[in-house]
Design goal:
The chain contains seven helices and no strands. With 159 residues, it is mostly helical. The protein has one domain. It is globular and about 35 Å long. The termini are far apart.
Length: 159
């Protein structure tokens, strides 16, 4: 078990393990087309983070990377195909992370928040621009901006 999750219910742990896949679907599917490159970029990034990320998140990504593709495909098959029907559910699920942030160590919460934003941005950039990077569709840009349901952990607010 991931030590940072010791205070979480099984349902909360399950949600945390699905967050990278949910964020990928929200962003990649904003234009109703989750393409192979977007899936590949998200999977590669998750795998990379399992070996190169901060110690605080390494065990988390080691676990997530083993099931990421399967979880992503399962969610895609279970959720509605159209973004306008799928995204409200995903936003609701992702908003639950804010409660979880209060139950995990502040460093983990802050790093996790930053990583989810990074994954979302890389997925959004995956299908456009030069060699598939550095361009974001209007729909994906709106979806990136709509990640506001995930709030920066309180312990690190810069007020």
């Amino acid at each position: 078990m991931i030590p940072q999750f010791s205070e979480l219910t099984q349902e909360e742990k399950d949600l945390m393990y699905q967050v990278p896949a949910l964020a990928t679907i929200l962003i990649a599917g904003a234009d109703d087309d989750i393409d192979a490159l977007e899936k590949e970029v998200a999977e590669e990034l998750t795998n990379l983070k399992a070996t190169t990320t901060e110690a605080e998140l390494q065990e988390y990504y080691e676990k997530v990377s083993t099931t990421f593709r399967k979880d992503l495909e399962q969610l895609i098959s279970e959720l509605p195909g159209k973004a306008k029907f799928r995204n409200p559910y995903i936003r609701e699920q992702l908003a639950e992370i804010n409660v979880i942030f209060d139950k995990v160590p502040p460093m983990f919460a802050n790093d996790f928040y930053r990583h989810i934003k990074q994954i979302a941005k890389r997925v959004a950039e995956a299908s456009g621009g030069v060699l598939g990077y550095l361009s974001v569709s209007k729909e994906e840009e709106r979806a990136l901006n709509n990640l506001e349901m995930i709030l920066q952990p309180k312990s690190f607010d810069k007020k």
